[in-house]
Amino acid sequence: MKNNLNRNSYRILENEGEISRKTICSLTTRVTGELIDSNELTKIMQPKNYSGILLIDGKFVPVRNTKKAKYGFLPKSAKRRGKTKGGLVIISYMDYLTHDIPIYEIALSENMYDIEAGFRKLKEIGYLLRVVVCDESMGEIAQVAKKMYPDVIIQTCLTHYGRVIDRTFKAKAAKRRIKALENKLRKLDDWHLRPTWHYSRERAIQLTNEIAELEFEYGYLIRIEEIFQDIFWKAKDLEDLNYYENELNVAIAWMDLKRYPYGKRIKDRYLDYYEKREQIIASIMNPEPEIPRTTNLIEGFHSTTLEIRFTSIRGFKKEQNARNYINALILKYRFHKFTDCKKKFKNLNGRSPLEIAAPKNHQNFRNHDWVRFCRNLKKRP
330 lies in a domain? Predict the structure, then answer.
């Protein structure tokens, strides 16, 4: 079972040993069902070293036999749905400084009911929530967090918000095209092209006209997008923020958006930024808690720990098997020791997320096999 959780497929394990894939699959299904629930493990261990900065994100898992979502729930993600036509969503709640996952939820969709259930469990374990960092598309998170923790700070993931701007403006292809044309224009001045100067001149006129046409059509979009990127990533304090926002306001004021064919796109993003400004610049307005500006940490967990396994499995036949397997993956993550943490997280190397969270009731888990440890905990009354 451990080898399968470590990204070895049933076929690889079958080739390495004398056990059939069917037997390995049955053994994995049985053992994963015997492990304690990760949320219950948190209640038992009572970690006391959490930072209060929480990263929240959802991940789709393909499952063939799942019940339909209730009326009123948000539709589940279509990503990687393929032939399964159904699935579950893992909603992970990751503590930023310890990298531990004290609570997780498995739902049929990213809906308010299950997100609120996760926050209730956080309250049950005494988690002192100060900051939530989440994707803007999961708007229920901010709403529920404010309901459960009125003083919580909400930071929108700027990576996701920047992608929304990219999709709205659709100017990246034009920007790449302009850069390619400019490179061609510079090459026309090379010395070995002097004998064909008449041709180079005509070609230069053609390239210049093409660049001018692209800049006329997409110039405003490219300029505003660049200013937004400066606000997101270059602004370190209020002084920087005021400088870049002033640039944005001046640029908007000088643009003739009424005649510009894409003026509505710029106007909508400009108004949207100031409507959601409090959550977008939360890390600048509240520098003390050391708020991250992205959910990259939890997305890395979803990609390296969950996505790789689900890709090789290609979906589950039964919902309960999927739930047990997901729980086993999260338990494995919480007990594994970090080896490649860098920069400010370098001090985490050599310890597991659960160990960094400093559990009050440690149960001497450091000296035990984590599978046996979690099975024994579930057997206890």
Answer: yes
3-state secondary structure of 326: helix
DSSP state of 283: H
Q: 51-73: per-residue pLDDT in tens?
A: 999 999 988 887 765 554 444 44
Token pair of 98, please? 């310890």
Residue in this structure with the two tokens 């046996």, named with its chain if needed:
372
End-to-end C-alpha distance for the chain, whole angstroms? 25
For residue 41 the two structure tokens come to 């493990």
This model's pTM is above 0.70? yes
DSSP conformation letters of 94-130: EETTT----EEEEESSS-HHHHHHHHHHHHHTT----
Q: Is the dihedral of CA 230, 232, 236, 240 positive or negative?
A: positive
Let me know: does 334 contact 354? Beta carbons within 8 Å.
Answer: yes
**DSSP strands (E only) in 208-357:** 316-318
Residue 116, in any domain of the structure: yes
In-domain check, residue 343: yes
- Secondary structure class of 318 (helix, strand, coil): strand
Looking at the structure, tell me whether residues 142 and 191 fall in a common domain: no
User: Which residues span the domain enclosing 348?
Assistant: 34-157+294-379
SS (H, E, C) 225-248: HHHHHHHHHCCCCHHHHHHHHHHH
